[in-house]
């Protein structure tokens, strides 16, 4: 019932933007942000070794797995059976993605039991009924739901790809490392955004400025354009529904 434009914009963006995004661009950002930019930034937590320990495979393998599972579910009405992996037509896949990674990582990070789905949904439930459709979607961290006695099924296909995108891996890493990850990600994300701005006009991009005796800092990036100065403050956290 509020008349705030900012509140309306957050809700509309949350509802519309995911469906207008190009999934393969977001998948490409996973490595660009969580590997390349993280390696270049002034932090030492987010490394290729960190992701391998957390996910059970490399970031490259995780992204490849999401594409593989999405293709299988797309062709089989949302179902992917690991028993199919014994078929000879899958041998070509194992040159790029091992069967062990497919079986273990898909079970750990792509499949969620029905009871676990309900628990996650309850943990993130919105008290205000008007915000129910903006609640956290458990499919973001478990796109396949396993019903008792049945094969896991993906009721919506897009979350299979989204599972390997930064927005989903964020929650996996926060559950493991808490504030240490968010602080490291903030540094990496600030560097990543700076790299993108530098593609536009590197000569007129000014990095964060420290000033006065209290060492106060400006916004993260300042882009000086003809007749316009753009101030860019980088935040690596999700907007709240409210």
Explained architecture:
The chain has 242 residues and is mainly alpha-helical. The chain contains nine helices and seven strands; from the N terminus they run αααααβαβαααβββββ. It has a three-stranded antiparallel β-sheet with strand order 3-6-7, with helices on one face. The chain has a two-stranded parallel ribbon with strand order 1-2. β6 (221-225) and β7 form a beta hairpin. It is globular.
Outline the low-pLDDT stretches: none
The total count of helices amounts to 9
What is the succession of H and E elements? HHHHHEHEHHHEEEEE
Distance between the termini: 12 Å
If strands are numbered along the chain, what order do they take across the biggest sheet? 3-6-7
Q: Mean of residue pLDDT?
A: 90
Radius of gyration from the alpha-carbon trace, in angstroms? 20 Å
Extended strand count = 7
| Share of residues in helices | 40-55%
The SS-based structural class is mainly alpha
Q: What coarse outline follows from CA principal-axis ratios?
A: globular
- What fraction strand? 5-15%
Characterize the largest beta sheet: strand count, sense, and whether it forms a barrel: 3 strands, antiparallel
Task: List its traits.
9 helices; two-stranded parallel sheet
List the SSEs and their pairings:
Layout: H1 5-20, H2 23-40, H3 48-55, H4 59-74, H5 99-109, E1 111-113, H6 114-123, E2 144-146, H7 158-162, H8 166-177, H9 179-200, E3 205-207, E4 210-211, E5 216-217, E6 221-225, E7 228-232
Parallel strand pairs: 1-2
Antiparallel strand pairs: 3-6, 4-5, 6-7
Helix pairs in contact: 2-9, 4-5, 8-9
